[in-house]
UniProtKB/TrEMBL annotation:
Stored CDD domains: DEAHc_FancJ (cd17970), SF2_C_XPD (cd18788)
Similarity section: Belongs to the helicase family. RAD3/XPD subfamily.
Xref: SMART domains: DEXDc, DEXDc2, HELICc2
Residue positions binding [4Fe-4S] cluster: C155, C173, C182, C217
EC number(s) recorded for this UniProt protein: 5.6.2.-
Gene3D superfamilies found in the cross-reference section: 1.20.1160.20, P-loop containing nucleotide triphosphate hydrolases (3.40.50.300)
Gene Ontology MF: a single term: 4 iron, 4 sulfur cluster binding
Protein name: Regulator of telomere elongation helicase 1 homolog
UniProt source species: Phallusia mammillata
InterPro entries: ATP-dep_Helicase_C, DinG/Rad3-like, Helic_SF1/SF2_ATP-bd_DinG/Rad3, Helicase-like_DEXD_c2, Helicase_ATP-bd, P-loop_NTPase, RAD3-like_helicase_DEAD, Rad3/Chl1-like
Any one GO biological process: DNA repair
Amino acid sequence: MELYLNISLTFSSLFSMPVLDILGVNVEFPFTPYDVQTNYMTKIIEALQTGQNAVLESPTGTGKTLCLLCATLAWRFSELKKIKALEVQDKQIEEGLGAWGANNAAPNETTPNVAKIIYASRTHSQLSQVVKELKRTAYGKQVVISLLGSREQMCIHPEVSKQTSNQTMVHMCRNKVNKHLCHFYNNVDDARKNGIFTKEVMDIEELVQLGNKRNACPYYSTREVSKQVECGVIFTPYNYLLDRKSRRSHNLEIGGNVIIFDEAHNLEKLCEESASFDLSSLDIANCIEEVGDLLNAVTKMAETGTVADGHEAGETTALSEFKKDDVALMKSFFLALEEHLDKIELPASKSKSEPGRYIFDFFSKVNLTFDTHEILLELMDKISSYLSTLSNSFRTRGTALQKFSEIIKVAFSASSTGPGDAGTPTFSIYSAPARPSIEELTRFYRVHICEDAPKTGKKDLWKKDKGTLKSKPSRTISYWCFSPGYAMQDLVRNGSRNLILTSGTISPIDSFVSELHVDFPITLVNGHVIDKHQIFVASLTRGMNGVKLESTFKSRGVMEQVVELGNTVAEVAKASPGGLLVFFPSYAAMEHYVKAWRESSDVMRKLESTKLCTVEPRGKGELKDAIEKFYSDVKSPQGGALFAICRGKVSEGLDFANDNGRAVLIVGIPFPPTQDAKVKLKMSFLDDLKRSGVPKVIPGSEWYRLQACRAVNQAIGRVIRHRYDYGAIILCDQRFTRKDQVNELPQWIQSHVTSFDDCPKAMRRLRSFFCSVREKENFRLRSLSGKDAVQPKRSQPAIDKRADKSTISSSASRQVSFGGMKKMYDITKLPKMSDPDCHVPSRVNKPNNSTFAPDCMCQASTLNTRKRKRVEHGNDSKKANLLDALDQCNDVTEEEEPTNLGEAEAHPMSTHLLVMDRRMAETQKKKKIKIKRPPTMETPLEDAKPSTSNGPTQEQPDERRARFGPAGGLLQTIKKVLNSEGYKTLKGATETYRQKENIETLVESLAGLFLDNPAHHYLLRAFVRFVRPKHHTRYSELCEILTGQKCILTQTESNT
């Protein structure tokens, strides 16, 4: 079928939203879409109409979630309409035949059975954000959804909900449900009949509130909703969908339904983990303790008729149901398993690997096989369920047996059946479902046995020694799946209509798809909605002192390189406003650098004097406090820096929009640890498949390299989170200049990458980028507010002409930072549904100034108090204008251009700096120039008679001398108070002023140089002599706002 795109724009009278005709499907969208959004929705609808699988990449900030919801629901509603239309036709035909004696059956009034949308994301919090996005769309009031959550989040029973262990909560809940002891569950059926949980779209928090209000369990109610024909979308975490047991327990029917994996960049890893397990000696010892505890209680009950200590909270009837021989046999099983694991011979390395079938040989030694494992599972689940009823806040029971039960289910998962397989095992990667041999079953697995490293943590005095082999070191046997296709093909075999995988960072797609063993005919790599001026990307080969930048295990031992990297990070921190994210390859690397910077150099002192630093903790429980501290630091005048690791918690799902993530710096390339057993086995596994001729398999070395690339891309994705966000990406390693590394970056970033051998030049460009982007953003907001703004002549700010002007309210306001002062501009605080802002989580309910950098954005380095060489000014210049004086200082010479040819267009100020860089280089080759006092300023200082009408309230001799004395004297004074970086900034600002004649931009730049020290305010005011006459009055007004005093103007100047 030939695909076509016919997008026509109409307006829905009900929602006042654009209606898009995409491939014949009417999509109600909150605003006129960008091209990338149209492309994205087109691919989604194409996949849904053809039933083909799709992999779609669209950068964060392009409205991916909004497009996904609108396109899928529009398609589903269109299918509903088609089916209802056919039913009407059938009914009309039946009515026509009725006159000839046809049976007039009652019409079918039920909802047509259309494919449901199963929307999976990584975490419950991400799903809650998606549900909130759905509520803002036109479909939020039309669709019935089911949001599947965990008991930890949704249980409202006062006794069960207070349990700290998830397993304990599960068993207590099941026990009360089975015995009808939970009145919340008993009301679920009435809630279903009354449609309590289907009347509106609700997130988890709202579901819990409603459940408490109506005394109905939200956990089981949402599961009931998912089974209803009326349910259009089922929201679920990944693990509920990928694991067969979880699918069954949550009533997830995938046959004939559409499955969407959002944030799918980690899908490969999660598929493998869902089919893998690790079993340690400690796990077995815990099982022995739990079963032994029950055995003692059963024995005492049988012999004395009394309940053993610790079992008083349990039910006597439940305890009496256990047979002593069965429990004793269970304990003997675990003792034998522990002994067998300890007897495995290991080489001197204390670890070894085996083929996948080894796990069945291991379990068969203790008579655990395909034929016997069901009997063992039944008894284990019964014991763990009983023990969970004994749990309290001081002790949790039954969790060890529950974990072992999950392990057995993974190992023998091929014995379970799927719908439509008629009892036949469903495991098969490349062949049709059939009873697999052990070799076929374990082809995509490897077994690893190793001795565990001794733990050095504090001893828990409350815990008893477990197991019978206390003197032996602990061991772990691992059963690792290395084929994500195991889980993905299981979904296909169970009849899913099609799969849609989407994320902001999937590329490279070919290698990603090759491991899933499922065909994806439809693919898309989308661009971004931002403009060129909103992004700056630099790869640095050398640091501030010219030392090579490279972060490898070997280079970390070279102190010179360690210090150079630290100084470079400090310079980036100084040049960047707001929040700086610094990503390291690993925890070990991060801790090494931070320790070295603190102990062996003053790098950390420099960093902490520029930004308040926070380090990502290893523990999950400490992360929340660390992030909150960082967010708080960003709001402070000093700003904040967050040190984190690639593939860590910070790099995965946290939002660092606006000032929280103005720059991200990547230290080194985060390759996986080469000595990690799982990494080595994965590479070996891929190489074996490649040699055996399996199609579309990448070599192990290529997989290893791509893991690092994807980790970098995920970390980079923390910046630029919406249409008007902006930020910088700094790649601190010479290896990032290689073409193969650049080609693996997100496609929308590749064209912006500029390689720098000169780090100081890169820092100047970075400063100019932030100055330029703030200028454009200020202009955009002033335009939206209706305030008068001087529009730059050459490089106009990007203004979204599609912004909804109706959202602008004269009573709303936004604070705009300007040179240390705050100015109020009226813009909207109340966006309508048709405003793109309300569909971007990063831009909803944010502080007014969140899209701006702090006042120090254009500020140069801290003033250097060291004595500087005296600059002699000769008589090469005869003009008082500073721009002309600077022009005559140097001639333009050729210098190596940056590799990015599009940078000049993207960053106008950077273009000027190219010229300034050349002049600076040439200055070192020429003699110093002496600037004579111009003949136009022959009036002696003491005879100058400035007008007092516009003068400052208190005239200072230094200011009068600077204002009316020789121009060279003012230049000389400025060079004394500014360091070299500050003087370079001054030249860039004046060059920009020459071309654009934007007086406000000039004052902003000068304010960053002179406002910090009150003693230098007079230089800012005196600088009016170099301003074009038509701007004298405005310049003086701005100076009064910033310093409290106007400039000294002559009568002629004040009348200009």
